[in-house]
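Support request, please re-run this one:
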Amino acid sequence: MRIEHIAMYVKELEKARDFFVKYFHASPNEGYHNKTTGFRSYFLRFDDGARLEIMNRPGMDDSEKTAAQTGYIHLAFQVGSREAVDDLTERLKGDGFDVVSGPRVTGDGYYESCVMGIEGNQIEITV
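Re-run finished. Output below.
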């Protein structure tokens, strides 16, 4: 068994798509739009086959996100090396995204950084 995909609602669909394409090399599909309901989505495929569905619809609730809440809390991307973690973290920081932690070695031995990515969603970048 494997997870087929993860989905998240976003306010600005194309901006979110472009974020994952630019920083994490996602390949988007052509998109879907249900003209009756206003629902729109893209499936983003990553190099290893993992998929993320980003979605938008009229009337979404946009509650404040906190770092310590129940439910899904971050997306983690493995980039292959400490240098790649450092480089991507600096690139995101230079583009105005807040670095929450790292790059650093965590207590359980991971080398990672955490960045507040698109629309306040936390992204973990690890080796």
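The two ends are 24 Å apart (CA to CA). The helical segments are 13-24, 82-94.
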